[in-house]
Amino acid sequence: SHEETRRPPTKSKTLGRCPDTPPTLVGPLHVEFDSQRTLDDVREMISSSLREGGRYKPPDCVAQQKVAIIIAFRNRHEHLTHWLYYLHPILIRQQLDYTVYVINQDGEGVFNRAKLMNAGYVEAMKQYDHDCFVFSDIDLVPLDDRNLYRCFDNPRHLAVAMDKFNFHLPYKTYFGGVSSLSKGQYLKINGFPNTFWGWGGEDDDIYNRIIFRGMSISRPDSVTGKYRMIKHKRDLHNEENPKNAGKLRQTKQTMNKDGLSSLKYTVKEIKKDILYTFINVDIEAPL
Ligand code: UDH
Ligand code: NGS
């Protein structure tokens, strides 16, 4: 046709699929939490690579997965600066099609990490057709960029060797810190529990859900899976909840009714920064 003949013959518009192993990874990283670092420094350094909302797509190949990075958040702005400073360059080198979602718990009620993650899943799906979800604490930075922030054949635990645990797992079934689940894996377990208020146990409940649905845990090796945690004091309104440990004996009975199927929250604000999508949610927290 006419159009066909006018197209330059050497330049094809169809990009190939990105390789299984990204070519530009560097391996072990130097990580230091310099207190002088500001969000504007990070913006200046990274924003030219990103699109509004903290989104990125590799320019020269089609990413294998569309990843949503979900962070449960309240009042940790200094940690957010460090996290963005380190993670954006890593995620770019990993050639991911990704978006960073910071899910902020509105108000001063008791914190609920897992319920915030559920709200993050639902809100991310409204923004883009994500097929993979990485759930991360704000205070954990990987020490090796070969630790891929994507999904695997089974739910993945990424934070396997944290400095605070002497670069070991604290126990074999530990699933805390950073994990990834494909959309299918997440739906299979009815998402995360909504009822673990305060600190402790929600990660163990997620582990139970995965096992009860016949899946296993995928992990990187303990060299690739090293992390540095930003040191901090215990937050206000996130005390250890002694009820949570007992709830773990009930996961099999509760998981079908407590999760994505029972999730209730309201969005109060969505703000798209160049470095992240900030979603403020009211999760009906007890005071
Ligand atoms: N989080 C917030 N704000 C809060 C509470 C938690 O953003 O007020 C998020 C944040 O992403 C954090 C994650 O939830 O990384 C997990 O919470 P956490 O950092 O409180 O859990 P962790 O086990 O620390 O890291 C518990 C208190 C440890 C006190 C140690 C004193 N040396
Ligand atoms: C377990 C908690 C987990 C927690 C892990 C590590 O006891 O939620 O310790 O905690 N389970 C319960 O409380 C039932 S840490 O050493 O990071 O403070 O992730």
Overview of the structural elements:
- It is a single chain.
- The protein has helices at 2-6, 39-46, 77-93, 113-127, 183-188, 202-212, 242-247, 251-254, and strands spanning 55-56, 66-73, 97-105, 132-136, 140-142, 156-157, 161-162, 178-182, 226-229, 266-272, 277-282.
- It has 287 residues and is α/β, with parallel strands linked by helices.
- Strands 1, 2, 3, 4, 6, 8, 10 and 11 form an 8-stranded mixed β-sheet that branches.
- Helix 2 packs parallel to helix 3 (77-93).
- The protein is globular.
- The protein binds 6-aminohexyl-uridine-C1,5'-diphosphate and 2-acetamido-2-deoxy-6-O-sulfo-beta-D-glucopyranose.
- 2-acetamido-2-deoxy-6-O-sulfo-beta-D-glucopyranose binds next to helix 6 and helix 7.
Small molecules in complex: 6-aminohexyl-uridine-C1,5'-diphosphate, 2-acetamido-2-deoxy-6-O-sulfo-beta-D-glucopyranose
Helix share, percent: 25-40%
Question: Poorly predicted ranges (pLDDT <50, ≥5 residues)?
Answer: none
Q: State the end-to-end distance.
A: 68 Å
What is the global morphology? globular
Number of helices: 8
Structural class by secondary-structure content: alpha/beta
Radius of gyration: 19 Å
Write down the overall mean pLDDT. Answer: 96
Content of β-strand: 15-25%
Largest sheet: 8 strands, mixed
DSSP summary, beta strand count: 11
Element string (H = helix, E = strand): HHEEHEHEEEEEHHEHHEE
GO molecular function: beta-N-acetylglucosaminylglycopeptide beta-1,4-galactosyltransferase activity; cytoskeletal protein binding; metal ion binding; N-acetyllactosamine synthase activity
Family: Belongs to the glycosyltransferase 7 family.
Pathway: Protein modification; protein glycosylation
Subcellular location: Golgi apparatus membrane
